[in-house]
Amino acid sequence: MLRRAKVGQNGTAPAGPTHQEETMNNVYDLRSTMQRRFGGLVIALATAAAITACSGDSAKQATSGEGGAPSAASTSEAPAPTGDTIVVELITDENGNYFKPKEIEAKKGDLIRFTLTSGVHNVHFLPDSNPGKSGLPPMSEFLQLPGQTYDLVVNLAHGDYYFQCDPHAALGMVGELEVED
Question: For residue 92, is pLDDT > 80?
Fold first, then answer.
């Protein structure tokens, strides 16, 4: 806190602070009090937000995937799979970032299980990449733990659908789903 004493002409301090100095001291006191009170509040809110973001909504909580790692839950209610399970790995390694396989053939009712091998990835069927297509799956959550999965039950109309990992699309992490009859 800044408190300045004004020295008079005879070398002694005046009896008390001037009105302007008293006002400035009150401003400094108020500012200091606000920083202490609201600084703690900001830290508490930031901590609460971080905990909420990390834990997610319990209604959307992921189930356990391979190796006990949590799987990303889809935000929409998908029909139960009635066909084959097709595993697609999401990989980051010395060869880059990619889906393996990057081209998938599936039928309605098949389950595509996107499984994180390494890196941090998501799966996104962008409307821009699929013009004229409706009912595209929502963007997945980011998979962050090896073994974490995102399951997609194929309920799309016959045709070709393009998907990508948003942060790595420009690096070539794109794929194609061909839905057959």
Answer: yes
